[in-house]
Design brief:
Elements lengths: L9 E5 H5 L10 H14 L5 E7 L8 H12 L3 E4 L4 H10 L3 E3 L18 E7 L2 E6 L7 H15 L8 H4 E5 L6 H5 L9 E3 L2 E3 L7 E6 L3 E8 L2 E9 L3 E4 L8 H8 L11 E6 L2 E6 L6 E4 L10 E4 L6 E3 L4 E4 L3 E5 L18 H4 L4
Parallel strand pairs: 1-2, 1-4, 2-3, 4-5
Antiparallel strand pairs: 5-6, 7-10, 8-9, 11-12, 11-20, 13-14, 14-15, 15-18, 16-17, 16-19, 19-20
Length: about 350
Amino acid sequence: MKRQAVDVGVVVIDVANVCRDERLPGRLGLERLDFVIEAWQGQISRYAELHMVADRSLLRELSRSDRRRVGQMRRNRELLISRRRSDDILLDLAETRSGCVLSRDRFLDKRRGRYWIPERFYAWHMEAGRVRIVRREPRDTQSFDISRKEEQKEARSLGIPDLRHPAARRRWACVSEIPCPTREASPDFIQVLPILGHGLARCPGCGEPLRDVGMRPSEVELKVVVGDVTVARFTLRQGETVAFGRLTMPASTALAGLAARNVLGDIGRAHAELRIVGKNLAVRPIDEKHPVWVRRWRKMQLLGSERRLRHGDGFSSVGLRDTLVFGRHLELRRSGRSIAEAETLAAIDTSAGWRREATT
């Protein structure tokens, strides 16, 4: 794909993000916006084409004089006010006009499905009492962070203010007597977030009240990745120790296709043991013939260091954003979701020929 050029003479400004930033001088309001615009014009592009976007919630926080000024800016078509969160409008404007985005928001929940250009994003900081415009520092944004941000957004849409809220930390069962696809998919307890309203948890499938069935145990959702493409997922729960290898991999057409091309030829039938220790994933190779490497995540680095794990060392803890490497092609990465929706690993299965072939 041809890399799109970014025009610093076109900038889309996240007005609410600017006005609310306490790092900037002045009180909450358009005075801070003036400081940032002046800095952009003085440091980046004097005659920049400005597009300003804000969500309606900002208006409730502004002074009366600022609200009058907002009205004038809207009439002059200098400011676009969105009834809902303005992130999509802001990013769409920047993409269609090949311009920049000025915001301190990382937009993690908006990255999937977009052609993400790091050079497009700018922010500000204070230096010796002056507002300085800076390009957003490059960071190795992990899919873990994106998944977690998406789940947080989903939780808020269901009335759950935070993933640490009791509604998100307990298990719920749908016991309604009306048809419910959520209950049919998981009769013992739902594997998705409930709807929370007026302190009552309801089923997202049928809307009926849910039964509290206890605390949700620690669990992680793991992604099987080949060539940076997720080909399967599975869940590992507290108290389980499972063998991961060809005989226990999730049933997946994609995995069967990769095996047919011998991509999984160096993965053992049972390659490593996995468990949860505390809240962390831990791994131990079955033996020295089945190597496993852990690629440590390092902030600000695209590629971290790799270390081979030894069976004799016992179970080794794996960081939230670390990657487990099996053979030449297969990786395991942790999803950022706090509530795992994938199935657990099945018992040893030799029914498919590709599971029996290649290494032992």
